[in-house]
Design brief:
Elements: H1 3-37, H2 45-58, H3 61-90
Helix pairs in contact: 1-3, 2-3
Length: about 90
Amino acid sequence: MELSELRAQIDTIDRQLIELLEKRMDVAAGVAAYKAGRGLPVLDAARETEKLAAVEAQCRPETAKPLRGVFEAVIAASRAYQAALMEKNHG
């Protein structure tokens, strides 16, 4: 397979990832509203630890570490998004 074909596959997957990540952020907005309505903090360290362990358990051994890093970034972005929404709506 040619490099251009492989890159085209990556581009397609990236578009799918963006769509899924945007859906995830939409759900995170709901989580932010729930937390704000109940006076809960944005950070739930136990949930994050649990989620990262689940991610690693679902990955192949050779991809577990790099994909954990991806999910750490996704979770951090989600947390920042939630914080911004909560501040905007209650700040």
